[in-house]
Design goal:
The protein is α+β, with helices and mostly antiparallel strands. The protein is 17% helix and 39% strand. The protein is globular and about 100 Å long.
Length: 760
């Protein structure tokens, strides 16, 4: 075994060396490939933070050499390949993706780089330093070394504000009290620019509407010292406009709740809470809109308040555009104060809309059929930003292929009404500043659905929900549903299905729990709202608790029977899960992504329940899970549903414990087409063994060896964020097989997944 490993390693090493040499043979005669630069610093021992300084200096070295991967230069390799006759489609495609033009020694202008290095040293206080360079040349490669001799840097002795007109002098003086500049600090031009921006930002919050950081200038005075010390002065540039050095307050706030370009200026205004509203007819009630507007007459201008108002108005859901404009009142300008008028233009969305979706659904469980969904929306229903959504769906599916379930079909009908209020509906009124970032929404919904599975059963279910959702900041969202009610009833069952329930008590118990009443709470942290961030984290934790409050109103069961509420058996359980994701975006325009995900969930039945209701259990497998296995076909544990002659296996491959991990590399192909290479692992288990599974479903310390694992490739059609996804995956570890036979890459048992949107 060791011999084989060494043999494989040797072959890989030889292949890498041969690959690298294949690049060198293309280098033109008389040229050397530039392999990079390094910096050597000769300095006084009193100089501190040399490592940080060296890192900063290395950032300005130009040009950058061709990139390397495991000692190879694939980008350069494919550049040379496409220069040949008939390079082939694959080489041309790879060049478009990762190709790089070669960087030669002749492209390096060392004198220009030396000037840049000296300039950067002076910006950091190292005046009168020197920079030289020398090449290290080989037969076909060359690198450069820059030798820097740096002297003791200049250090600040005092920092003070020079004379300025009032009132900006007092404002700037107050800000410098919090300045990071301290005595003995090294001269640093970049820190001075940051300090200008900081002072400008803080003064903007105090009304200085026309201020600009470029109006400030730093001057260093070394005349009083002969030991490389200086005094630093902050000054205003000459001829700064008068209106730039006085604070502005908001004199008037004008709001246009139903604005369009043809609005007349002759509309009769309405005053409410010291704001003026202009609407020819009542479109949005001022008392409802007022809470979203944090601008107030008489207060100093503050860009943060303006952004907050714009963001809050955008979350209502009734407006397409929010535009806040300020107009200076020239007549109000004095030596110490000026005034603004704030105009808030709100362009509404279409009040009524109908959306239709027709899908040809093909599931990994071989169920195929059409699905039609219609949604009617009425925005600003009661002239307070309310949104009414009424949706209905009609779906038909039939199972294709062979097996016990071939020919099974289902018809699903659904009707749901949802009413969203852009405010908190609660017996206790909250202070308007309690939710500073955004005002929560109150969501209510009521729905009913009908599901008929041929030859098995008919299921009627209803649900009702009342809850809140709000953003605590840009990244954090909370969702709280204190009322969440579900009711299900088996209206019609076949003899075959009755037999299935009799043979599987766990399954029967999960269907017997007709009434679910509880609350749900979710915490979501989402950094993926920053599309340009290379490192993105996402966390969604959910808590679902049912049956506690309803148990106080229910009736106790007799002779060992379950407790009931209004004659219905209700469920009691607690369920918690966590969905963690990390994305690393890199490459040109960050079009390449390494996406990872980890999911863990646990449900605990108690009190009135021995098992969690079927609709609340976890399952594994499918296009949003472990893609090498069909939907609900993985687990629980090592159970093999395909070898079970009992057709109940179609229903019961679920559990109250779920663990999953996914990793995926996403890359662009051409235009709207993107590709992926992925690997998934996961399974579900039961904490309490189901007798029908002979203990194969129970969670144990050996769970690692019971994970279903698969890998595959994917194709995505991504049109402005709307993604159609195809994933072809094959298992390489199947826990349902006997030990010793589980590790087997079964390409002939691949699963094709079709889905809308990314899996994670």
């Amino acid at each position: 075994m060791n011999f084989k490993i060494k043999h494989i390693f040797s072959i890989a090493l030889i292949s890498i060396l041969a690959y690298s040499c294949s690049v060198k043979k293309y280098i033109p005669e008389g040229q050397r490939l530039y392999t990079g630069a390094r910096i050597e610093i000769e300095n006084d021992t009193s100089v501190k933070h040399i490592a940080a300084l060296k890192t900063e200096l290395e950032s300005v070295l130009r040009p950058e050499p061709n990139s390397k991967f495991l000692g190879m230069r694939p980008g350069l390799h494919f550049y040379y390949k496409v220069q040949q006759e008939n390079p082939g489609f694959l080489n041309r495609w790879l060049y478009r993706q990762i190709g790089e033009e070669p960087v030669y020694q002749s492209d390096v202008e060392t004198f220009e780089v030396e000037d840049i290095l000296r300039n950067r040293l002076e910006n950091n206080g190292f005046f009168y330093s020197s920079a030289t360079s020398s090449f290290e040349e080989k037969a076909q490669e060359a690198s450069v070394t820059y030798q820097l001799k740096i002297t003791q840097p200049y250090a600040m002795e005092r920092f003070q504000v020079d004379t300025m007109p009032s009132p900006i002098y007092e404002a700037v003086k107050a800000q410098t009290a919090n300045s990071p500049f301290k005595a003995t600090a090294r001269f640093d031009l970049s820190n001075m620019k940051l300090e200008r921006q900081r002072i400008d930002s803080e003064l903007k919050k105090r009304g200085y509407y026309n201020l600009n950081p470029e109006f400030f200038i730093f001057e260093a005075d070394t005349n009083q010292y002969d030991n490389k010390k200086f005094d630093l002065f902050l000054k205003l540039k000459a001829e700064v406009p008068k209106k730039s050095i006085v604070p502005y307050y908001i004199k008037n706030v004008h709001i246009y709740p139903n604005y369009n370009l043809n609005d007349s200026t002759q509309i009769t205004p309405e005053r409410f809470n010291n704001k003026t509203y202009y609407q020819d007819s009542l479109f949005f009630k001022p008392e409802r809109l007022d809470k979203f507007i944090t601008l107030k007459e008489g207060e100093l201008y503050n860009p943060s308040t303006s952004k907050n108002t714009s963001r809050r108005l955008s979350t209502i859901g009734a407006y397409k555009f929010v535009n806040i404009q300020y107009k200076e009142i020239d007549s109000a300008l004095t030596d110490s104060l000026a005034a603004l008028e704030a105009h808030i233009f709100l362009s509404p969305l279409t009040k009524r809309a109908v959306r239709a979706e027709l899908q040809a659904v093909t599931k990994s469980s071989n169920f195929t059929g059409p699905n039609l969904a219609l949604t009617y929306s009425n925005r600003n229903l009661f002239k307070g930003g309310e949104t009414l959504n009424i949706s209905t769906n009609l779906g038909y599916e039939t199972q294709l292929g062979s097996g016990d379930n071939a020919g099974l079909s289902s018809i699903e009908l659904g009707l749901k009404g949802e009413l969203i209020f852009p405010r908190v509906i609660f017996p206790i009124e909250f202070n308007e500043d309690f939710f500073e970032y955004s005002i929560p929404k109150t969501k209510t919904s009521l729905g009913v659905s009908y599901l008929s599975r041929s030859e098995l059963y008919t299921l009627i279910s209803g649900n009702a929900l009342f809850g809140y959702s709000w953003n605590a900041n840009k990244y954090i969202t909370y969702e709280l549903n204190p009322i969440s009610v579900n009711y299900t009833q088996l209206a019609k069952t076949s003899t075959e299905f009755e037999t299935i329930l009799e043979d599987n008590p766990f399954l029967q118990l999960s269907f017997d729990q007709q009434f679910i009443s509880g609350l749900t709470f979710s915490f979501i942290y989402n950094e993926m709202v920053d599309a340009n961030d290379p490192y993105q984290f996402y966390l969604n934790t959910t808590l679902d608790v049912a049956g506690n409050s309803i148990s106080l109103l229910g009736s106790s069961g007799e002779n060992g029977e379950a407790d009931t509420f209004l004659g219905l058996q209700y469920a009691q359980y607690a369920k918690a899960d966590m969905d963690f994701r990390f994305h690393y975006n890199f490459g040109k325009n960050k079009e390449h992504t390494i996406a990872t995900r980890f999911f863990a969930g646990y449900g605990l039945p108690y009190g009135n329940s021995d098992v969690i209701p079927y609709v609340k259990q976890y399952f594994s497998g499918g296009p949003y899970s472990v893609r090498a296995f069909s939907i609900r076909s993985l687990g629980p544990g090592t159970y093999d549903g395909e070898t079970d002659d009992d057709s109940s296996s179609y229903f019961d491959q679920t559990g109250n414990i779920r663990l999953e991990a996914n990793a995926e590399y996403r890359f662009p192909i051409f235009s709207f087409f993107k590709g992926a290479i992925f690997a998934d692992a996961g399974n579900v288990w039961n904490s309490k063994s189901n007798p029908s599974f002979n203990g194969e479903d129970k969670f144990t310390s050996n769970f690692i060896n019971e994970l279903g694992m698969g890998t595959g490739v994917g194709l995505r059609v991504d049109v402005q964020g709307f993604v159609i996804r195809f994933d072809l995956a094959a298992p390489f570890h199947d826990p349902s097989l006997e030990e010793g036979k589980r590790w087997d890459f079964r390409v002939d048992d691949s699963v094709l997944n079709f889905a809308i949107g990314y899996s994670f």
